[in-house]
Sequence to fold (348 residues):
Amino acid sequence: MTPDFIKQALRNVRYPGFSRDIISFGLVKDVRCEPGSTQVDIEIQTKDPAIPEQIFKDCHAALDDLPDVGEVKINIDIKDAPDNSGAAAANTGKSSVPGIKKIIAVASGKGGVGKSTVASNLAISLAATGAKVGICDCDLYGPSIAMMFGSNERPTANEKEEIIPIEAHGLKLMSMGFLLEDRSPVIVRGPMATRYTQQFLRQVEWGELDYLILDLPPGTGDIQLTIVQTVAVDGVVIVTTPQEVALIDARKAVSMFAKVNVPIVGLIENMAWFECEHGTRYPLFGDGGGVREAESLNVPVLAQIPIEVPVREGGDGGKPIALSPASDSNASRAFHQAAEAVSKAIPL
Ligand code: ADP
Fold:
């Protein structure tokens, strides 16, 4: 019996509630095969006692009946999940990711305001300045970055068990959705979000990147906090529309990130207006709400993005509008402006 053989067998043990196995999650720290006994050391970060219990049972089920294993001993070391409560915990335990110079999160208080559209176009515009850029879709409930980049490839792993990101339009691309077997939404609590994020950022073969853009899930809850507290995020871009309901949530987002000391790079007002072919601007969601909000919050406005059909078409068709020349589209121009402002605010 060899440790490799045991590890192979442990690939059948899934993390409860997820489609991935405990080996690819990196939970198995050591396997020792001696005559008459096999020992497996597992480390889990959770506050839920049912998780180690289930993994313990499943490991025994996977190993006990193998030939020549002898007595199987599963040692589980349970590490407490980080405590996310309060600003005191804010800056502890954050770590940078080797090879990545700057990490920028794109967030929104409210869903559907164009956060993923902004994240993808910002990433493309930053890449157009010559920077090496990666984008990571952290939205488990509605991962859409892969579609926006026209990719339905599934990533593979290298020999170090790191996930190799997909490449599209010159960017490296990872989506948490790639790890889900089906497309159904998953309940992810803080500890799991931490594990996912850590795995994403550490067990992905990102290589050398100037900027990694994190497309956060919408909202201002535990998951967003956990993610920005797990890694050293250099700044967050908040996306809103000019509409009051979106602004209220954008305000909450600004205050949440400020509380945990993540620098606010600025606000992007998306869907700022629609311009008809005669050049008249219609502020469909209200006029200048984002700009006024930014002023009152004392954060910069990075760009105002108009509503344009090609923005939506580009997103659905896997070719974000920022790939089009700025002269062809006001939205494309605005995204390039936003990238310029971001790269000034967060220089390499
Ligand atoms: P979120 O990530 O906030 O949920 P999305 O980026 O998925 O939002 O955008 C929601 C929808 O609105 C998508 O279909 C997208 O193509 C469209 N959309 C976003 N911004 C614009 C815009 N400026 N012009 C036209 N359509 C847009």
Observations:
- The first strand starts at residue 28 and ends at 34.
- The chain has two domains: 3-79, 100-345.
- Residues 303 and 337 are 7 Å apart (CA to CA).
- The chain is about 30% helix and 25% strand.
